[in-house]
Please model this.
Amino acid sequence: MNKLYGPDGKTVLTSRRAFLSQSAGVAALMAASGMSTSSNLIAQPAGAATSPMNNATFPPDFIWGAATAAYQIEGAASEDGRKPCVWDTFSRLPGTTKNGDTGEVACDHYHRFADDVKLMAELGIKHYRFSIAWPRIIPDGRGAVNEKGVDFYRRLVDELLAHGITPHATLFHWDSPQALEDLYGSWRNRQIATDFADYCTQVVKRLGDRITNWMTINEIFCFTYLGYGVGQRPQHAPGTLVKSRQEVLQTVHHALLAHGLGCQAIRAATPKPAQVALVVNYDAFIPVIETPENIAAARRAFVMEEHNGTVLVPALTGKYNEQAIAKLGADAPKVQAGDMAIIGQPLDVLGFNIYTGSYVKAADNDRGYEVLPLPKEYPQMIMPWLNFIPESLYWGVRMVSEALGKTDLPILITENGCASNDEVTAKGEVFDLSRVMYMRSYLRNAHRAVAEGYPLKGYFHWSLMDNFEWSWGYTRRFGITHVDYATQTRLPKESFRWYQQVIAANRVL
Ligand code: GCO
Model:
């Protein structure tokens, strides 16, 4: 029988999955996960036959969406009172981004948002995840609010609502105000947690009448571990060299604190009942062969490996993972009294950004698992870190229940996608078939998670359109819509057409 385990590895609950896995037939599985067989039939494209292989139908209330982030699409970097963020400064330094690309113009979404919302409506999404730029709202990071910046998001959200699209707003997607970097070293200083919470209050007070789905912070790992480094310049802004790993870990702690205070600020300021989430790109561990021993190994790796043990585990449980902290030794973050209670604020939703994963197997060592190296020829989606591992989505969702005991915490896939070498044909089409293959494979794993009763509630594809891919500039395309940066023309790719059909049918095609 399946068991659910707490962070200490001891059994805490008996799973309802055991029941599901034994129940007879597809119909029982669908009924148990809230799916209606009759609506499946209605939603199918004409002539589509259902077989066990293509019957990956989702519950009727499953959320289909797409995601973007402010710095990657907005442009208008110095318009209407916005001041620089650390990415403006960093990307202007020689050698930090491919071709010296910056987000100065990006997809010019600031001016073209109405057309972009039309594109979303054409795609058929009812949910859109975007981020709000702190340096547009409070250009100096703290102090005066720039109402013109707020107005932009008001216009965007009104346009979304007019098209029946629910906004999901991330309050921080890596664009820290440069002013705070200059003033006190942004994430190196504990003060940023309070300044972030104040910024959240100002945003939610003004936009909380029309946005009720809030995400505090996106991917703590990327702007801390990748933004601060020892020895060589890190790949992400602010690109600061620090003296010790401890200082890097301390930025993680400050980010967690900002998240916790941010949750409190949102809940205090919202004029309407609101949902609060944290978005984490936590590591997914896949049992290389699905045996009980390897599943137990994956469970251990999930909580003990450094990234999860220092970000996801404290955010969900209010405690850093002991083994991860012990391994860090003197580099562990310094914690003040009361911090952990703030960090472990209850969440309404967990946002899971999932692109890739790692295979593990049981091992006879002190940790009880081994993370396996991938062979050189392992399939990759043209990013050095983006290995094609579709099961990562399923195991990443499952382990929140199974390794952390959070069986009822709703999970949204807040990002999933890949880069590809897209070319526009003479007829003006883009056949990004590797993306279609990628999406289909990952969505089958999303379906498995739902069908087995894990609380996966939705999927946001990264990304709605090609955009500024950080240090890769515009050389990597993650969109289901092609953007010609010279003319700002948007061209839906084959993956857009595919996703459109998936959404309409509510099943993987
Ligand atoms: C992320 C980032 C995106 C990236 C995407 C592809 O949260 O990792 O949100 O900004 O563009 O992940 O690398």
Observations:
- The pocket of D-gluconic acid is lined by residues 69, 72, 218-219, 222, 281, 353, 415, 462, 469, 478 (CB under 6 Å).
- Residues 1-47 have pLDDT under 50 and may be disordered.
- The first helix runs from residue 17 to 22.
- The radius of gyration is 22 Å.
